Amino acid sequence: MMAENVPLTTIADAVGTPAYVYSSATLKRHYEVFEQGLSGMDSLIAYSVKANSNIAVLAVLAKLGAGADVVSGGELVRALKAGIPANKIVFSGVGKTRDEMRAALEAGIYQFNVESLPELHALNECAVAIKTKARIAFRINPDISAGGHAKISTGKAENKFGIDITTAIDAYAEAAQLPGILVAGIDMHIGSQIVELAPFAAAIDKGLELIKNLRAEGHDISNFDIGGGLGIPYVEDADAPPLPIEYGRMIAEKVQGHNLKMIFEPGRMIAGNAGILLSKVEYVKTGGARKFLIIDAAMNDLIRPALYNAHHDIEPVAQRNSDGITTPCDVVGPVCETGDTFTEQRDLPDMQAGDLLVIHSAGAYGAVQSSQYNTRPLIPEVLVSGDQFKVVRERPKVEDILKTENIPDWV
Predict the structure, then answer these.
(1) Radius of gyration of the chain (CA)
(2) Using an 8 Å Cβ cutoff, are 49 and 408 in contact?
(3) I want to staple 228 with a disulfide (CB 3.0 to 4.6 A). Which of 15, 84, 143, 265 is the partner?
């Protein structure tokens, strides 16, 4: 198995396992396909940095003209360092601090997506203090179910995100009175890994109705941020989510004639299937009715299966035989948690200790959610381009981890 023109065995020999491996060509292709799907629309593609925030990945997208959707001051620094212009950055997130607001204002970002009235007033204070105005859109919660796992749904009334759509008119009236605020648009983001167009269509309809009412109240609404959420295929033979061109065509038809700049925040769709988690079988354990493949990757490296019961296709880097015989296996990691399980009773080809395997569709919400639980160092991230590869995040030594900790003199 190859990553572009580089054998995965070469990467494993040079870098060790486990490791994330990303394809530059796939990142570029996914971005360009998404961009082409929006052809003819006045739009800003603000890549969702939380999906994969490695600065090398951001730099690849920056060269293609991408903006960024950030949800923390740290992500803002990453986006700017990677070469994404401040005037293409939108700042989302429910708990922005005043320090983060000031940093974003001083950088000159394009827009704040404001999630609450208390946040609005904090942002106004920060803007007034440095004698500027914050360009804002309220994030509107349209109370729309988008399917998928409950932990990645963001558009229902019971979710923590955004302003209830029934109170939006009053929120905009309040914002218009503040000296440090410039009302510019509305924002909606209804969830993640959405695999049908109907929820997006329903959200857009509600958004356009709100924009009509806001304009009637005298607000200059020029932007409509529809967020991200377009799903990817995690299972090779499953029904595919809508293509970007279908998504773009539906949106273009709905917003035509409304004189709006559309802002999109794709993340998973760009990065998800541009990356894999490369791992090695440490032990094959049989007992009772189960066969366990104990691998060197763990839930602290890729938490999605433990957190969301997420499916990732798994296959060996090199097939031992071609007879097509498979055996039900549990693929598990070494962390001392029963939840450290990547799959249960999955039919897999024969694999033995020392064999390399790949966990697919790991380019989004993989490395960014990793931790050092059990004092397991963060794993390397590798970027491939053609026949070249480079480590773009190094594996720290345990000594490096311990340097951040101190024993008080009085112990």
Answers:
(1) 23
(2) no
(3) 265
Convert the chain into a string of H (helix), E (strand) and C (coil).
CEECCEEHHHHHHHHCCCEEEEEHHHHHHHHHHHHHHCCCCCEEEEEEHHHCCCHHHHHHHHHCCCEEEECCHHHHHHHHHCCCCHHHEEECCCCCCHHHHHHHHHHCCCEEEECCHHHHHHHHHHHHHCCCCEEEEEEEECCCCCCCCHHHECCCCCCCCCEEHHHHHHHHHHHHCCCCEEEEEEECCCECCECCCHHHHHHHHHHHHHHHHHHHCCCCCCEEEEECCECCCCCCCCCCCCCHHHHHHHHHHHHCCCCCEEEECCCHHHHHHHEEEEEEEEEEEEECCEEEEEECCCCCCCCHHHHHCCCCCEEECCCCCCCCCEEEEEEECCCCCCCCEEEEEEEEECCCCCCEEEECCCCCCCHHHCCCHHHCCCCCEEEEECCEEEEEECCCCHHHHHCCCCCCCCC
**Whether residues 230 and 379 fall in one domain:** no
Question: Which residues are annotated as catalytic?
Answer: 336
* 41 φ/ψ angles, rounded to the nearest 5 degrees: -95, 145
266, 296, 311: which is the final residue of a domain?
266
For residues 232 and 322, membership in a common domain is answered with: no
Which residue, chain included where needed, has tokens 């480079």? 390
Same domain, 339 and 358: yes
Asked if residue 344 and residue 380 are part of one domain, the reply reads yes
In a domain? residue 99: yes
For residues 176 and 128, membership in a common domain is answered with: yes
Looking at the whole model, is its pTM more than 0.85? yes
What is the distance between the alpha carbons of residues 64 and 84, in angstroms, rounded to a whole number?
10
Closest CA to 294 of 224, 227, 354, 381: 354
Residues 6 or more apart whose Cβ sits within 8 Å of residue 147: 191, 194, 195, 196, 199
Parent domain of 230: 92-266
**Domain final residue pick, 207, 231, 266:** 266
Q: Determine the Cα angle at 151 with ends 280 and 35, to 5°.
A: 80
* pLDDT tens profile 48-89: 999 999 999 999 999 999 999 999 999 999 999 999 999 999
Tens of pLDDT along 310-346?
999 999 999 887 788 999 999 999 999 999 999 999 9
**Residues, the chain, total?**
411
